[in-house]
Design brief:
The structure is a homodimer of 182-residue chains. With 182 residues, the first copy, chain A, is of the alpha+beta class. The first copy, chain A, folds into two domains: 1-38, Ubiquitin Ligase Nedd4, Chain: W, CATH 2.20.70.10; 41-176, Nucleoside Triphosphate Pyrophosphohydrolase (Alpha-Beta Complex). Chain A is 16% helix and 36% strand. The first copy, chain A, has helices at 81-93, 152-167; strands at 14-17, 26-29, 35-36, 41-50, 53-59, 68-69, 72-74, 97-108, 113-122, 133-139, 173-176. In chain A, the strands form two sheets. In chain A, strands 4, 5, 6, 7, 8, 9, 10 and 11 form an eight-stranded mixed beta sheet that branches. Chain A has a three-stranded antiparallel beta sheet with strand order 1-2-3, with no helix packed on it. In chain A, strand 5 and strand 6 (68-69) form a beta hairpin. The longest helix of chain A has 16 residues, at 152-167. Chain A is elongated and about 60 Å long. In chain A, 39% of the residues are buried. The interface between A and B is large, with 43 and 43 residues.
Chain lengths: 182, 182
């Protein structure tokens, strides 16, 4: 949980306490009583397909700079999850994509994130690194750099993806990603 | 977007501007440069089944106090979407539920929410109104108070639910809920 010291509304000090009628501690303003709720964030991503290859991005930013990922990032207000996945693909890989159905939902409760991963079709096969990527590349299944993937959720979703592709059925799924240690 | 006047970290005034390397306006602290991101919230809900009836709650709180809904509410940090749906069912209807697979995902971009609706099985058929409900009741399809449902997303998901039940296949889906007017 992000530490909140001061009230966003009146600038006075906040305290961590359970508001009346609630059952979880929140950052509550000691002066104006404003409650600063914090909730999980959605990360929207896409597995962009071009023939039998998929597009990955080598991260230029922390965490996990230098490792590979699918295009994905925090969903913004006022957009749909599909729009967020397409926008991230454009921002990170300068690639236009048509978003297919929702493929995977991954709970990552220890960091209060929910990943929502779509399959997508590259529109024209064009791509190049956006400002948050060092490199963008199409990979066949045999070429996937499994040891250099940025996050466990990416390993999980790509393993499922290639398994499903071999079976010929892409099955929507919901899963949970646990901490690597502990 | 919530108005933010003061920095949560240092208490100084914030300004609305596009941070360097970003492309959307954010509330940025004019003093310490802390960026206050705001992102969509997940509402987790459940269609609790008991035989051929489902459990609805009459809302005791605004918005739409006095109208009927499925148990649903804002997902909290450190939980999974399934846990959130079960917790809300317990809080709003004092009912224990076993959560089935993810049934529906609803983008509601104009209010920056994503609804995630599961099917669930009531464990023992027991229920009663929690503090946020005036009444809880099992409804057969014929009895659903369609004109007294609290939100368009509830109408959409229950219509699909009963259609799918008649076909004998509950198909996961993703949809978008637009504003009633405009």
């Amino acid at each position: 949980m992000l530490t909140i010291n001061y009230c966003t509304q009146c600038g006075e000090l906040v305290e961590l306490r359970v508001p009346s009628g609630d059952n979880l501690p929140r950052h509550v303003c000691a002066s104006c009583e404003f409650i600063h709720y914090q909730n999980p964030k959605i990360v929207a991503g896409c597995i962009p397909e071009w023939g039998d290859r998929i597009l990955l991005c080598k991260r230029a930013i922390e965490p996990r700079s230098g490792l590979w990922t699918i295009p994905a990032g925090f969903m913004e207000n006022l957009e749909t999850v599909e729009q967020a996945a397409a926008r991230e693909t454009d921002e990170e890989a300068c690639a236009k994509v048509i978003i297919d159905g929702l493929y995977g939902v991954y709970n990552i409760p220890h960091i209060s994130q929910v990943y929502m991963v779509f399959r997508g079709q590259l529109v024209d096969g064009k791509f190049s690194p956006g400002p948050e990527s060092l490199e963008t590349r199409l990979y066949s299944e045999e070429e996937i750099p499994w040891e250099e993937l940025a996050f466990p959720v990416i390993v999980n979703s790509l393993k499922r993806y290639f398994n499903d592709r071999r079976r010929g059925v892409f099955e929507p799924h919901i899963d949970i990603i646990k901490p690597l240690r502990g």
